[in-house]
Write a structure and sequence with these properties.
three-stranded antiparallel sheet
Length: 124
């Protein structure tokens, strides 16, 4: 099923995610924002207490909560829940909205070439 969103010049084929190897989960360091509600859902999914989850897997940044990342190489990081062996997200069913809405982020309305280089599911 091809996805199209109003205001975007590209379409997205989610079936290509299997081929990608997690390019949207890796790259330059940044933030993977997670709300309190999302952190509780993820904690439940991981069968742990929310406080333990936040202590172990998140950090505070700019007054918000972000999932932590681990270093893969020079200027290359991955979300803590990205499994580099399988190339898949370990919390996929409960991933944060930031992850669920990719590649349809407002920043890519104008910078579609950038996301097209990164994501094999982009259809122009």
């Amino acid at each position: 099923m091809i996805i199209q969103k109003e205001g975007f010049t590209f379409k997205f084929d989610p079936s290509k995610c299997e081929e990608c190897g997690g390019k949207c989960c890796t790259g330059a360091p940044g933030y993977i924002w997670v709300s309190e509600e999302e952190s509780e859902k993820i904690a439940h999914f991981l069968q742990m207490e929310p406080a333990e989850f936040r202590e172990r897997y998140t950090r505070r940044a700019e007054g918000k909560i972000s999932l932590i990342e681990y270093r893969l190489g020079v200027n290359n990081y991955a979300c803590i829940f990205f499994d580099k062996k399988s190339g898949k997200c370990q919390i996929y069913p409960v991933r944060p909205i930031q992850c669920r809405t990719y590649p349809f982020w407002d920043i890519f309305k104008e910078r579609w070439k950038e996301v097209a280089r990164e994501c094999p599911g982009i259809l122009l």
